[in-house]
Specification:
There is one protein chain. The protein is mainly β. The chain has a single domain, classed as TolB, C-terminal domain (Neuraminidase), CATH 2.120.10.30. The protein contains 2 helices and 20 strands. An 8-stranded mixed β-sheet has the order 14-15-16-17-1-20-19-18, with no helix packed on it. Strands 2-3-4-5 form a 4-stranded antiparallel β-sheet, with no helix packed on it. A 4-stranded antiparallel β-sheet has the order 6-7-8-9, with no helix packed on it. A hairpin with a 6-residue loop joins strand 8 and strand 9. The two termini are about 30 Å apart.
Length: about 260
């Protein structure tokens, strides 16, 4: 989310988390770490809010007023295929492909854009209540986060809400960017930390906590922003990870600590 909107208390919170590790609610949850397989260049001007891969196409949504975009990239060549600018005052957030529609959230504008997945042309706008952070597609439902420990399910055609689930064992998390994995679980960046949660959206259980710290060198991380962006590579157990203003995208596996 936007850096300038948070108070000094957030910096203090991140420092405390780094010193103390995860909360006691994580004690009984499996812990995983990152194994880096490969790296790829990433646009360091992209304030990444959403990441998703379908076939050889990477969809990325970015934020910031006046700088929000959605773009597609060929995963084989790295070439950008299409891009759409999100006009002010909209602050772009997560993206997901559902059938023949690419959905893009906005943060506090209460608008979801329905786009053509090839040209990224806007087809429609749909209003929703609350904030929009992350979104992914799981079967015949969309899964959406709002920066709390709650996920909302939505109809992939109308965007109407169809249910919610609370992760009560982790009430203080800020579920942000989402990836609906092939095994039915949902991976979520926990803003503003360097950890990723593997979630069971059917039961509201946290299945694993992944430590994704240390991906960027400290000298690079000083000019970058938070980890945000996770997308499974189709047909594999590998995931692509990046962050806001990060110059690198990492292909990783999640392995036991």
């Amino acid at each position: 989310m936007e850096r300038n909107r948070r108070s000094l208390a957030v910096t203090v919170l991140v420092s405390m988390l780094a010193l103390t590790g995860c909360s006691s609610t994580d004690d009984a949850v499996p812990r995983l770490k990152i194994e880096v397989i490969d790296t790829r260049p990433h646009d360091p001007t992209a304030f990444t809010e959403g990441l998703e891969i379908h076939g050889d196409v990477l969809y990325e949504g970015t934020g910031m007023p006046g700088a929000s975009t959605v773009r597609t990239v060929d995963m084989t060549t790295g070439a950008e295929q299409a891009r759409a600018e999100v006009p002010e005052p909209y602050f772009g957030e997560g993206v997901t492909l559902a059938g023949d529609t690419l959905w893009q959230l906005t943060w506090q504008n209460n608008i979801a854009f329905a786009r053509d997945p090839r040209t990224l042309t806007e087809r429609a706008q749909v209003r929703y209540d609350g904030e929009g952070w992350g979104i992914c597609t799981r079967g015949d439902r969309l899964v959406m986060s709002n920066g709390t420990n709650k996920l909302t399910f939505r109809d992939p055609v109308t965007f109407a809400p169809t249910g919610t689930v609370l992760f009560t064992s982790h009430p203080g998390v800020h579920l942000n960017e989402l990836d609906c994995a092939a095994d039915g679980s949902v991976y979520a960046n926990d803003w503003p930390t360097d950890r990723i949660l593997r979630l069971d959206p059917a039961t509201g259980s946290v299945l694993a906590v992944i430590d994704a710290s240390g991906l960027l060198p400290a000298t690079v991380r000083a000019s970058a922003d938070t980890l945000n962006g996770i997308a499974q590579l189709p047909g594999t157990d590998h995931f692509m990870l990046t962050g806001k203003y990060w110059p690198t995208m990492f292909e990783v596996r999640f392995v036991p600590t």
